[in-house]
């Protein structure tokens, strides 16, 4: 759709070390040539005979109602060799309109494509549904058209979809999104800078690939308060950011052109733009999005998601903070922004409960009002001290977001805790604050805790407790009675399970113009366009052999706990059973191999579940089971043990939870569901002191 994406794609495909190119080289034994569409005259007849030829272009190059003056539709003598053996009566080709060759076949790139019937792969396919786009396809005569889009339209024929939850499961995107609001744009900028610095510390400790977290600032348009120039000057003058670390990416100013943001020696840590970044901007180091405009619309939320979600190296990091993306907003309508963001996640394929679970609030107080929760007052502790400006700056580094440090009109320093200060916060505060201020700080903290004793959860006061854990004696060792751990001591083999698919599980029935695949009683019917295109499922094709099907299935039916040799033997038995014992033609299986692979994956998962059920029963309830409970190996409950777990966002305020009312982990059921009702019943018990799940 854009030149930016065209250039990126062409460069990736030309790079022998890029995964895109490596896949093509493996499939075509290195016989691959990649061309930018502007270089189409370099394509030779030999290239087309001997190599996979990939031409990367934009739809705009081809999508014109009048082809005059367009290079791809023009006559080029350099392409004459491609047409030397083409019959002058070949239909469907454009002809020269004038000159000595009037009426002859035009030696154009469009005609060359028409002759060879290319496979066309279209990105952003929702933009290619006009009648003019259809005209383009008729001109180039593709053998097939494969479309990719994140937002399919009614005219897109969806064959396969991937949800955002699947992307998260595959470790391709940074989730959840941590939302944070500020009342002033300066506050949002400061918060974004601090978050980037915090993430940089995590990145420095992470040894699994270089990461330099980047902040994307969305400035306001000309004529408004926070323009690109105002924001950049603020970063330099007030936040002491080195200008070399700032890049501006707008229509008029293109500081990122020619810069590789992934290089370790690249200094860029902040990117300023106006309309977020256009399609094709790709930097997985982007972690923090800071918009200085009010974000309410779904479109704005989508811009946010598209820029900061991609996971570096498509691999989960050991540092939990590097697995999340962050949004800093200037808004007094935080709940509206969060609901809008939730709706966009639902549009992208999340279930509503999953969407809510993938949005977090940065600060304890900011989730009030999220998803219907009523706002409530929170205890606030304010301490006034005589401190210099330098001391004030040192204290401010402690816990941004939880502690607010400001200068009062009388020149005194005000330290304000929002919510209950925790032992960890207090410890950091005393580490950073000058020693001469420790006495008055302790006094103020003690007064505050005495005044708000009812608001302080045990976890906030540093209390801990241990729940004994169920253990089992397995092969002479005492291990946690968890099925995953018990399975580690359990040897089982795929060979112990039948390599059989019954007719009820998988069948193919051929009729005149259709064939039906029956999968567990659910039939998928595929029909030919008309009787002249009758589907033939039993015609043999070169290279379609039992071994090739088994090898293909081996690549699709993978299981991390099953060795390849064991899996290959089992798959070979499956295919032999289907072809020999059930008389199913190999060609039928080849045409339905994706569905067969899906069924076999389900089958293996079912075998594993049977083994799990067996090992659970045997080690915990069998005649020879030896179980006991252990405090030494118990589960310790402590403050912030649920720091990375989504929190309850319902309308009820729990009074007796061990972690406090704002840190109750989310339940498996929605508000009003069985788990929530159970928690409400516990919380209402008159003699209950505290509870936790």
Automatic annotation (TrEMBL):
Q: Which UniProt keywords apply?
A: ATP-binding, Helicase, Hydrolase, Nucleotide-binding
Entry-linked Pfam families:
ResIII (PF04851)
Give the stretches traversing the membrane: none
The reply on keyword Manganese is no
| Example of a GO MF term | helicase activity
Top-level lineage group:
Bacteria
Native species: Paracoccus marinaquae
Tell me the protein's name: DEAD/DEAH box helicase family protein
- Taking every annotated instance into account, which residue ranges of this chain make up the domain Helicase/UvrB N-terminal? 7-153
Q: What is the lineage of its organism?
A: Bacteria, Pseudomonadati, Pseudomonadota, Alphaproteobacteria, Rhodobacterales
């Amino acid at each position: 759709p854009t030149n930016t994406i065209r250039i990126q794609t062409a460069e990736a495909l030309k790079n022998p070390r890029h995964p895109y190119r490596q896949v093509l080289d493996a499939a075509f034994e290195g016989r691959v040539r990649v061309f930018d569409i502007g270089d189409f005259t370099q394509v030779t007849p030999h290239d087309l005979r001997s190599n996979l030829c990939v031409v990367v272009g934009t739809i705009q190059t081809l999508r014109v109602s009048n082809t005059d003056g367009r290079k791809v539709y023009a006559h080029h003598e350099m392409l004459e060799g491609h047409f030397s053996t083409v019959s002058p009566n070949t239909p469907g080709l454009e002809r020269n309109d004038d000159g000595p060759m009037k009426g002859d076949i035009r030696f154009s790139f469009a005609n060359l494509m028409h002759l060879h019937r290319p496979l066309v792969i279209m990105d952003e396919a929702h933009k290619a549904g006009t009648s003019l786009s259809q005209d383009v396809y008729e001109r180039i005569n593709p053998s097939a058209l494969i479309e990719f889009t994140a937002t399919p339209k009614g005219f897109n024929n969806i064959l396969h979809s991937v949800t955002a939850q699947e992307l998260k499961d595959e470790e391709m995107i940074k989730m959840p999104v941590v939302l944070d609001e500020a009342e002033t744009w300066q506050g949002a900028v400061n918060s974004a800078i601090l978050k980037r610095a915090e993430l940089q510390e995590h990145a420095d400790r992470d040894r699994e690939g270089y990461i330099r977290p980047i902040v994307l600032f969305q400035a306001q348009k000309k004529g408004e308060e926070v323009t690109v120039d105002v924001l950049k000057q603020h970063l330099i003058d007030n936040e002491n950011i080195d200008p070399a670390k700032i890049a501006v990416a707008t229509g008029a100013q293109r500081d990122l052109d020619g810069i590789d943001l992934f290089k370790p020696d690249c200094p860029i840590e902040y990117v300023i733009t106006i309309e977020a970044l256009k399609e094709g901007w790709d930097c997985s180091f982007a972690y923090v999005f800071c918009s200085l405009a009010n974000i309410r619309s779904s479109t704005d939320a989508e811009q946010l998601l598209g820029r900061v979600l991609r996971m570096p190296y498509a691999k989960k990091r050991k540092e939990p903070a590097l697995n999340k993306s962050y949004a800093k907003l200037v808004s007094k309508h935080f709940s509206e922004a969060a609901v809008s963001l939730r709706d966009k996640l639902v549009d992208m394929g999340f279930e509503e409960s999953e969407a809510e679970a993938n949005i977090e609030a940065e600060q304890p107080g900011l989730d009030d009002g999220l998803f219907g929760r009523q706002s409530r007052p929170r205890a606030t502790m304010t301490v006034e001290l005589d401190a210099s400006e330098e001391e004030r700056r040192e204290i401010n580094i402690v816990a941004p977001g939880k502690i607010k440090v400001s200068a009062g009109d009388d020149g005194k320093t005000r330290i304000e805790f929002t919510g209950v200060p925790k032992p960890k916060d207090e410890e950091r505060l005393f580490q950073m604050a000058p020693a001469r201020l420790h006495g008055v700080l302790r006094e103020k903290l003690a007064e505050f805790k005495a005044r708000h004793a009812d608001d302080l959860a045990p976890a906030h006061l540093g209390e801990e407790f241990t729940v004994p854990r169920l253990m089992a004696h397995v092969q002479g060792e005492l291990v946690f009675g968890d099925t995953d751990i018990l399975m580690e001591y359990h040897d089982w083999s795929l060979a112990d399970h039948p390599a059989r698919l019954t007719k009820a599980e998988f069948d193919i029935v051929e009729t005149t113009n259709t064939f039906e695949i029956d999968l567990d009683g659910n039939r998928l019917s595929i029909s030919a366009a008309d009787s002249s295109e009758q589907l033939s499922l039993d015609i043999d094709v070169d290279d379609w052999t039992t071994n090739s099907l088994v090898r293909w299935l081996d690549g699709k039916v993978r299981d991390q706990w099953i060795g390849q040799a064991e899996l290959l033997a089992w798959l070979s038995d499956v295919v032999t059973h289907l072809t020999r014992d059930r008389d199913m033609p190999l060609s039928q299986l080849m045409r339905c191999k994706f569905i067969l692979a899906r069924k076999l994956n389900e089958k293996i998962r079912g075998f594993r579940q049977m083994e799990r059920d067996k090992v659970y029963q045997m080690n915990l309830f069998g005649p020879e089971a030896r179980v006991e409970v252990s405090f030494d190996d118990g589960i310790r409950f402590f403050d912030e043990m649920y720091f990375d777990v989504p929190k309850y966002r319902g309308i009820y305020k729990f009074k007796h939870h061990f972690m406090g009312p704002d840190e109750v982990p989310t339940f498996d059921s929605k508000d009003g569901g069985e788990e929530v009702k159970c928690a409400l019943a516990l919380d209402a018990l008159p003699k209950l002191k505290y509870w936790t799940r």
